[in-house]
Task: structure prediction
Amino acid sequence: MSKLRAGVAGAGAFGRIHARKYAEDARVTFVGVFDPDDERAQQLADTHGAPSFASYERLLAACDIVTIASPPSLHGAAVRAALEAGKHVLVEKPLATDAALGAELVRIAEDRRLTLACGHQERLVFDAMGLFSAPERPTEIESVREGPWTGRSADVSVTLDLMVHDLDLALMLMGAPPARVRAEAQCAHGRTADRMQARLDFADGGSARFTSSRIAPERKRGMRIVYPSGEVRIDFLARTFENTTRFPLNAAFAETRIGADPLGANVAAFIDAVLGVGARPVVNGAEALAVLQLALAVDEASGLPSLN
Result:
């Protein structure tokens, strides 16, 4: 069997990791990278002995699968170009920044029988913990995901930048979209929210509260999940949790293959899906669209736009 030819669009922090994962996978030939910053693209390409491409179109012509790790506001158009060129796509979150375009991407992928995956790899952390196998549904979720201003992903709101991770996890845990969305926001560096507080109310009486900020004094990543039999408190930075429920969870999740490297596991699952040895990617296009729609609803409820 011939190897899949893999390319990466975007030579930033996530693009570098995706390139390394492709270069390390025996089923893949890493063919190169495109980034508008020629110097940064060449540095990444040289790291793996591959070329940098002068245009995104030339990269697509050289590969079978592609990771899109460009600024979030460019995701939708880049995914559409790749799908229309017949390429399988793994896009970092969010899927797009417009719900109609997101729905179009899902349709194109389905019509052309192409794999469309998204980088919500926090799911793999919860899977390694065993949370998705819990015999109870949460009654309440609280999450905090914040850190100091870096300027990264400032082309979109903090909702699309950071909160999308926790929105995706909440949708998975609750098993249904919310019946009501409320939000309050603060902007400091542009038109979009740099700090967002949101509350989701679900039809079964459950609720979820989220705080995301990129103008906080320090990094925090945590979630509290309340169940009828107890609660789970997760520290994503320390990679630990406390569990007072009656169901067992894997305290050594961070030492498992998936828990130790969720992004790498996400890339591997994407390749599996393309090769047909895996049923599906970790997060498919339809699921990524549902998260996008919810994130946009949060921004709308706050009264601030999603794009700068």
Observations:
- The chain has a mean pLDDT of 97.
- The chain has two domains: 4-120+263-283, 122-253+291-302.
